[in-house]
Amino acid sequence: MSETSALQTSILEWDGKSATDIKAIYQAFVTEEGFPEALLSFIEDRALQKGATWLLKHYFEQSGNLTATQTRQYIASFADMRHWESRLHCFQSIPYVVIAVEDAEKVHAFIQSGLRDRKKFVKAWAYNALNELALQHPQYQAEADEKLAWALTEEAPSVRARIRNILQGK
Questions:
Q1: Which of 12, 69, 109, 141 fits a 20 to 30 Å CA distance from 168?
Q2: Which residue, among 79, 100, 103, has the nearest Cα to 90 in the 3D structure?
Q3: Is residue 78 within 8 Å of 111, Cβ to Cβ?
Q4: In this predicted model, what pLDDT tens digit does every residue of 146-167 receive, in sequence order?
């Protein structure tokens, strides 16, 4: 990507809150060659991580895809996600990611950490990610069904609302 430094600067200058501004960054750089690769490399930098994960999530939502190698790199980065919003973006991205058999356990471990998160929004999307993992890898279906059933009665109301949406989609 010829504009990597400009993209980095734009993410660093983003206030971390304005949806309008981060969408404008996406629009300005999405057509640049190497856009997803740059975002994947930025995830390693904590100062860029929140913006990079949001931009990747939006890229997926707009029908963007990663190669198998890029997907493995993205999944490998999950273990280093510390900021709750970066983790949230990753959980929200799971429906768009084809998870290779060899990466399923890494994704599962990341999801388990999300199910223990103090932030209810993160936890709710971790349940969604568990369901998505089970759709791609049936060996997780029994666990997903059990945890979703438990969460429907035991989790906070905001989490239960997400669980109902998941179950309605089944």
A1: 109
A2: 79
A3: no
A4: 999 999 999 999 999 999 999 9
